[in-house]
Structure formats: C-alpha cells, structure tokens
Write a structure and sequence with these properties.
Distance between the termini of chain A: 35 Å
Mean pLDDT of chain A: 89
Largest sheet of chain A: none
Shape of chain B: globular
Largest interface: A-B, 104 and 102 residues
Largest sheet of chain B: none
Order of helices and strands of chain A: HHHHHHHH
Structural class of chain A: mainly alpha
Low-confidence stretches of chain B: none
Shape of chain A: globular
Strand content of chain A: under 5%
Oligomer: heterodimer
Mean pLDDT of chain B: 91
Number of domains of chain A: 1
Chain lengths: 195, 171
C-alpha cells in the first residue's frame, strides 16, 4: 500500500510542478527535504534512547511484573473463559503492561507468545478464536501512558507544552479501545447467532 | 506547577529508585535499553527519508495545497482539520511514514495549533493496525482472522473522529 502512496506522491509532484511552474522548488525539495529527514531521525534518537533506557531499568526492577498483576483482574473481564493460570494469560498481562509503559520492543515478543498460546488453548485450526481477535485488536489501539515520540516532535516544532495533549491522548485511546473491542464482541455474537 | 510538568521527572526518578532497591545495575541497564532503541531509531531513518522527501516534493509542487483546497469544503463541513487528512490515511498503514507526516503537519501548522494538536493526538493514540495484525497473526497458523481487521479499522476511524472532538472540547 505504501508502494502506491509513495509513487502517487512523486508522480503527482512532477505533473503538478510542471503545470504550476513550481518544478524548480520540487527539484530543490528533493535535496533539502532528504536532509531534513536525517535531521528529524537524529533528533528523535535522543528521546528514544532516554525512554528505552528508563524502561529497561523498569523492566529489570520487576515493575512490569508488579503492574501486570495489578491489571490481571481487568483482563480477566475482557478475555472471557480464559485460563487465568495459563501461559497465554500471563503473556497477555505482560504484553499489555509493556505497551502501557511504552516498551514496544518488549511488548511484541510477549504478544506473539500470547497469540501462540491462545491458539493452543482455544484449540484453533486455521480460524482465529474470539480471544485471539480481541487480543490482536487491543494491540492495534495504542494505550501508551506517555507518547514520547509525539512529545519530542511537538517540542521540536516549538510547542510551549509538548505534553499538554496527554489527557486527550489517553481519552482518545480509551474510546478507540472500547469501541474496537465492543465491535469485536458484537461481530462474534452475530456469527454465533447465525450458526 | 502542572501535572504534565511533573509526570516525566517523577516516573524516571521512581523507576531509578526502584531499580536501586532491587539491586539492578541501573546505569548499565539504562545504556543497554538506550542502545536497543538507538538501533530501532537508526533503522527507521531510511523510511523517514523516503516519505519526507516524497511529501516535501508533493508540497513544493503545489499539489498538496490543491488537494487541501479540494477536500476542505467537505472536511470544514464536519469540522475536520484538512491538514490532518494525510495522517488519517497513513496512520494505520505505516508507523514511520506517519511520523514523517506528523512532522510535516507540525512544522506547517505549528504544534500548538488546532490542526497540530489533533494530529498529535491522532498519532499518539493509535498503533499501526496492519503491521500489528500481520505480525501477530503471522506468528500463528491462523488463516482466517475473521473480524479482527474490521473491528480494528472501526477502532481506527473512531480514533480519528474522537481526536478531533476531544481536542475541540479540551482547548
């Protein structure tokens, strides 16, 4: 998909540049924008490194495990009929906690483990179980406590308070999460009714 | 003193103190974590170059203004900031491309503008749906993901609408 978006951007730039007579600026943009992309990449590295470092310390200190126990009652409610002593459930708890802390790199392995374990527990052949669907859908909605990369970009672009959007991000994430999980349940309910 | 000013220093301090109590080698673990994210950060730079250059060409050619003028009667009608339109399209498809587009929105409209704030919330409140689903289901033998994608996409659309409403109400 990105293939097409990329191609369309470039082709339409050429056409539009010729028609509007801006082709000189298009040519200039190729050089200046590629340089500014490197600037952006280097700029982002600072915040990414600090956060990665802090969160690694959190992980090693067992904060992820403590939080994961704290969340398990809520998750029991979301994943109906799950074996709360099973491997899948503990991987789910760890994945959700790691996501909350912004530990993207740590969350993915737990997520993959959770999917594999759910597949076993629910005895799926080639069709996803409802708990697998809900777990994957939860992961497509972000619920990080602090969106550090967005904050870093806001700071770079002269925001007076880069984190002022924090409450709005949390509310929006919560709405997204509730709506997508509810729809996953509704679709499931409709299918079962049909069968 | 604002809540948002204290949260980051507080979280970092709390984590470091917990680490010391648990006898974690805080400094070297910090450096290890930083290294890991450094690698991730470096690895997304080529994608940033591709997208930022293409978006920059698109803007310089005047095509971007033309597109904004074209869709703004519709987006204005519902109160959606036209400048956020490109981000709404890319955010479910590619994380690093969206990052590049967020940067171009923030530099054009300003981080504290309505458009800038909506774009920040849109980006901060969502993951790359297609990527997550392909990685997660790709690890299993599942061929039929049933309604996982439709449910996730309904969530994404809700997130786009909610970010506009929440920002309108809060600022």
């Amino acid at each position: 998909m990105l293939n097409y978006i990329f191609a369309i951007l470039i082709i339409s730039s050429l056409i539009s540049g010729i028609i509007s007579g801006n082709i000189g600026s298009v040519s200039e943009a190729v050089l200046t924008e590629s340089v500014s992309a490197i600037d952006l990449g280097i700029y982002m590295l600072g915040a990414m490194c600090v956060w990665g470092g802090v969160m690694r310390v959190a992980e090693k200190s067992g904060i992820t495990d403590i939080l994961s126990k704290f969340f398990s009652p809520f998750l029991k409610f979301v994943f109906k009929g799950i074996d709360t002593k099973g491997k899948a459930f503990s991987a789910i708890c760890m994945n959700i906690t790691a996501n909350l802390l912004g530990l993207g790199n740590a969350a993915t392995p737990f997520g993959i483990e959770a999917m594999k374990e759910l597949e076993k527990e629910d005895n799926c052949k080639e069709t996803a179980s409802i708990n697998m669907i809900i777990f994957a859908v939860i992961n497509t909605a972000s619920f990080t406590i602090i969106p550090t990369t967005v904050a870093a970009l806001r700071l770079k672009n002269g925001s007076e308070n880069p984190l002022e959007i924090l409450p709005a991000v949390i509310i929006t994430s919560a709405i997204t999460l509730i709506v997508s999980v509810t729809f996953a349940r509704i679709f499931d309910f409709k299918r079962r009714k049909k069968n | 003193m604002k809540f948002s000013d204290i949260i980051i220093p507080f979280i970092i301090t709390a984590i470091i103190i917990t680490g010391l109590f648990k006898k974690v080698d805080v400094f070297s673990e910090f450096v290890n974590g930083a290294k890991e994210n450094f690698r991730t950060g470096i690895s997304i730079i080529p994608t940033l170059v591709a997208i930022i250059t293409a978006v920059g060409m698109f803007k310089a050619s005047g095509a971007s203004d033309f597109l904004t003028d074209l869709i703004s009667p519709i987006t204005n009608l519902v109160g959606f900031p036209a400048g956020c339109f490109p981000l709404a399209i890319t955010k479910s498809i590619s994380g690093s491309a969206s990052l590049a587009i967020l940067e171009s929105i923030l530099s054009e409209y300003g981080a504290d503008s309505f458009t800038g704030r909506v774009a920040s919330v849109m980006m901060g409140s969502s993951e790359t749906t297609f990527y997550v689903l392909s990685v997660y289901f790709g690890a299993t033998r599942i061929k039929n993901t049933r309604h996982a994608l439709p449910s996730a996409l309904i969530g994404d659309i809700t997130g786009i609408i909610a970010s506009v409403i929440v920002i309108s109400l809060m600022f």
